[in-house]
Amino acid sequence: MKIKELEFEKFISEDEIKQKVTLLAETIDHDYAAKTPVFLPILNGSFMFSADLLKQVSIPCRVSFVKISSYVGTVSSGQIKTLIGLEESLFNQDIIIVEDIIDTGLTLQKIIEELKSLGTKSVEVISLLRKKPARDKKIPVKYPGFDIGTEFVVGYGLDYDGLGRNLKDIYRTDSEDILNGNPEV
Ligand code: IMP
Questions:
Q1: Which residues on neighbouring strands pair with residue 51, listed in sequence order?
Q2: How far apart are CA 158 and CA 171, in angstroms?
Q3: With b meaning 16 or more CB within 10 Å and e meaning fewer, what string describes 1-31?
Q4: By C-alpha distance, which of 86, 7, 104 is closest to 39?
Q5: Ranges of each domain in the chain
Q6: Cβ atoms of residues 84 and 140 within 8 Å
């Protein structure tokens, strides 16, 4: 399968994803049985995963879609990343961040800090995919779906240069170009 100039091969099938999503939803139902968590899916990548997951979660819960904005701030450290789109108070709430994929986890760490500073009761992370750097750095992902290497993946919400989000399965490429040089990664 080709997207622009890159060749991709099938990696994780729709059926495998469905099974994993069911398992993750059952775990969340169990762990949050006496709670009413707020799911925070991070757009755009997690739109498909969060929709499928939430259809299977049966405990009472709230959902609030957010985005991560990055802009150059006035401080010398350069890029600041922050959550945008939060419309309700998260004070004293049990938060579950919903991610499509965690690679270095750098952004995620900042977002967790930001959410903790809002007086939340607890903050956990569920991510459909977790790459090796996140495991090496012990980024706190309580609910990882699939552990993968460093390959670049598309499909099921994940994109390559904006394309491929609509695919039902997940595809991979080992292209060095994208792993080294694409600013979207
Ligand atoms: P991190 O801050 O390095 O963990 O980057 C996480 C974000 O990078 C994800 O939410 C994706 O938007 C993007 N990303 C990382 N790896 C991939 C990939 O293999 N395919 C598509 N997007 C990716």
A1: none
A2: 10
A3: eebeebebeebbeeeebeebbeebbeebeeb
A4: 86
A5: 2-178
A6: no
Share of the chain above pLDDT 70, in %: 89
| Distance, CA of 141 to CA of 170 (rounded, Å) | 20
The answer, yes or no, to whether residue 80 has pLDDT greater than 80, is no
Q: Which residue has the higher pLDDT, 75 or 157?
A: 157
Ligand 1 within 6 A of 102 CB? yes
Listed in sequence order, the DSSP H helices in the chain are: 14-31, 47-56, 106-116, 132-136, 176-181
Query: 52, 94, 100, 103: which is the annotated catalytic residue?
Result: 103
Residue 177 bears catalytic tag: no
Is domain 2-178 classified as CATH 3.40.50.720?
A: no
- Within 8 A by CB and 6+ apart from 92, the residues are 119, 120, 121
Q: How far is the CA of 179 from the centre of ligand 1 (A)?
A: 11
Q: What pLDDT is attached to residue 98? A: 98
Taking the C-alpha atoms of residue 49 and residue 60, their distance in angstroms, rounded to an integer, is: 19
Report how far ligand 1's centroid is from the alpha carbon of 166 (Å): 16
Note the pLDDT tens digit of each residue in 101-116. Answer: 999 998 899 999 999 9
**Nearest Cα residue to atom 12 of ligand 1:** 45
